[in-house]
């Protein structure tokens, strides 16, 4: 069922980007008269504004799946609860690197084509201030290219071409590298691993940003640290599910979320408490989807599971294609259209494109237990 959640999240992020790139902004929309149902659709589409927060749920899911194997060993109390570091990094590399490399190459091809024929958007020189701000840091200078080749895209504050969503891959790479070290701490003391480390990060990083102005300029480092507790929350979920079952873990997560939300509303502390609430909410969403038989029984789950298997490709490939379509619209019509149909069909094209890229690349590097063909998904909740 968690595959269905990943599929939903990937589509959610994609639809949000389509809304940005292929549909007129609010300031332009309100200056033109529309029918009531168009207004309803337009204002309803504001629900797709939280793509950045949706990626945090991806982080929680990543921590869950990465730590699940070790959590199952702890439950069985086996002696073989050490991590084969070499095998771990080989599996992570084969899983992440080939599609990522193909995404960089595809981004370059689409951007070269777009810059040649519809250059205004790529040069951030359209008449739309929002789009110009969005594309001002999408470049191919030495900083963006070098960081992308180090598997740390956007870590310098500049994206690799138009593929801004790759920023989350940099975070994941750091968390993957940190996992063996964190696991040593977990084997020694679970309180330090799940309590002292995340709370220390959430409390000390904001203090460091206030007391040490130089640290605030290290935006990538501070943001990676601040989102690490979200990843660890997913790892904690894996152990809760293994020890107590998904329903008990869900109740615990709901209770913690309620308490932390109340604390946040009362204190209004900045970043730290907001992140606590966000990571716990991500945990609740994941557990609810995993434990509810009613949700599992819904037929649409099959579709989202299908998308979930392809979610990585959909996520890392879609934005350059949407950017190319948007560049064409600016070159031919001077801006984003008032109608939402272009955003709809652009989303369909981006999903088909991502799934096609999956078939050509990612599916050949999945672990064996993840290689599920479309016919095998039919009829399964």
Automatic annotation (TrEMBL):
Q: A single GO CC term, please?
A: membrane
Which is a Pfam family this sequence falls into? Acyl_transf_3
* Keywords for the protein's UniProt record, in alphabetical order: Acyltransferase, Membrane, Transferase, Transmembrane, Transmembrane helix
Q: Does the record carry Transmembrane as a key word?
A: yes
Q: Name one GO molecular function term.
A: acyltransferase activity, transferring groups other than amino-acyl groups
- The UniProt record lists the Acyltransferase domain at 2-356
GO BP terms in the entry: polysaccharide biosynthetic process
Keyword Signal belongs to the record:
no
The name under which this protein is listed is Acyltransferase family protein
Q: What organism is the protein native to?
A: Rubripirellula reticaptiva
Q: What is the lineage of its organism?
A: Bacteria, Pseudomonadati, Planctomycetota, Planctomycetia, Pirellulales
């Amino acid at each position: 069922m968690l595959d269905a959640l990943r599929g939903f999240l990937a589509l959610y992020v994609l639809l949000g980007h389509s809304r940005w790139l292929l549909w007129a902004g609010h300031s332009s929309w309100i200056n033109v008269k529309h029918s009531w149902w168009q207004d309803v659709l337009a204002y309803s589409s504001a629900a797709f504004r939280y793509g950045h927060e949706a990626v945090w749920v991806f982080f929680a899911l990543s921590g869950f799946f990465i730590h699940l194997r070790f959590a199952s060993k702890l439950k069985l109390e086996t002696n073989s609860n050490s991590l084969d570091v070499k095998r771990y990094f080989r599996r992570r590399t084969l899983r992440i690197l080939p599609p990522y490399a193909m995404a960089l190459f595809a981004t370059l091809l689409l951007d070269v084509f777009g810059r040649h024929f519809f250059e205004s958007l790529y040069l951030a020189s359209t008449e739309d201030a929002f789009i110009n701000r969005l594309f001002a840091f999408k470049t191919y200078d030495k900083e963006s290219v070098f960081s992308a080749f180090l598997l740390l895209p956007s870590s310098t504050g500049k994206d690799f071409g138009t593929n801004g969503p790759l920023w989350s891959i940099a975070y994941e790479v750091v968390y993957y590298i940190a996992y063996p070290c964190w696991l040593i701490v977990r084997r020694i003391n679970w309180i330090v691993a799940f309590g002292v480390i995340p709370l220390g990060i959430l409390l000390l990083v904001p203090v460091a940003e206030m007391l040490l102005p130089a640290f605030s300029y290290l935006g990538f480092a501070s943001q990676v640290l601040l989102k690490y507790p979200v990843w660890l929350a997913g790892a904690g979920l894996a152990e809760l599910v293994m020890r107590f079952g998904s329903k008990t873990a869900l109740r615990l997560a709901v209770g913690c979320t309620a308490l932390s939300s109340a604390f946040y509303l009362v204190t209004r502390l900045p970043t730290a408490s907001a992140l606590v609430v966000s990571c716990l909410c991500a945990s609740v969403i994941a557990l609810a989807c995993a434990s509810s038989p009613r949700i599992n029984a819904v037929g649409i789950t099959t579709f989202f599971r299908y998308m979930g298997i392809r979610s990585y490709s959909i996520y890392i490939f879609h934005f350059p294609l949407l950017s190319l379509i948007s560049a064409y619209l600016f070159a031919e019509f001077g801006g984003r259209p008032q109608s939402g149909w272009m955003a709809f069909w652009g989303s369909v094209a981006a999903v088909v494109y991502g799934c096609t890229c999956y078939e050509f690349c990612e599916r050949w590097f999945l672990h064996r237990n993840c290689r599920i063909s479309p016919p095998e998904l039919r009829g399964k909740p």
